[in-house]
Automatic annotation (TrEMBL):
One Pfam family here: Ribosomal_L13e
Entry's Gene Ontology cellular component terms: cytosolic large ribosomal subunit
Biological process, per Gene Ontology: translation
InterPro entries for the chain: Ribosomal_eL13
Subunit structure: Component of the 60S large ribosomal subunit (LSU).
Keyword Transit peptide: no
Described purpose of this protein according to its UniProt entry: Component of the ribosome, a large ribonucleoprotein complex responsible for the synthesis of proteins in the cell. The small ribosomal subunit (SSU) binds messenger RNAs (mRNAs) and translates the encoded message by selecting cognate aminoacyl-transfer RNA (tRNA) molecules. The large subunit (LSU) contains the ribosomal catalytic site termed the peptidyl transferase center (PTC), which catalyzes the formation of peptide bonds, thereby polymerizing the amino acids delivered by tRNAs into a polypeptide chain.
Entry-linked Gene3D superfamilies: 1.20.5.110
Originating species: Diaphorina citri
One GO molecular-function entry: RNA binding
Protein name: Large ribosomal subunit protein eL13
Keywords assigned: Ribonucleoprotein, Ribosomal protein
């Protein structure tokens, strides 16, 4: 929700700075359109006007522990897949061993 609120605030700020030129100069100005004085002051901006700023939490560098060094994500996932695949066969063997 915080990111949505930041984006809403950014868009409101953008809209407050926006100058809307009238479609037809000879007709009466509509609500929100710029007056002739505002149009004379207006300049064209290029590039990223109000970019979204991402704030990343910074963590300090540290030395990995022995458990972290020995941990293998690949091996852990491989064992989990094998356990899921062989669960039925292992139950059947356990029932047969208990039946004898």
């Amino acid at each position: 929700m915080e990111s949505l609120q930041l984006n809403i605030q950014r868009l409101k700020e953008y809209k407050s700075k926006l100058i809307v030129f009238p479609r037809r100069e000879k007709k009466k100005l509509r609500k929100g359109e710029a007056t002739p004085e505002e149009r004379k002051v207006a300049t064209q901006l290029k590039g990223p006007l109000m970019p979204i700023r991402q704030s990343k939490p910074k963590s300090k560098a540290r030395i990995p522990s022995e458990a972290e060094k020995k941990f293998s994500a690949f091996q852990t996932l491989r064992m989990a897949r094998a356990d899921a695949k062989l669960v039925g066969i292992r139950e059947k063997k356990a029932r047969e061993a208990a039946g004898q």
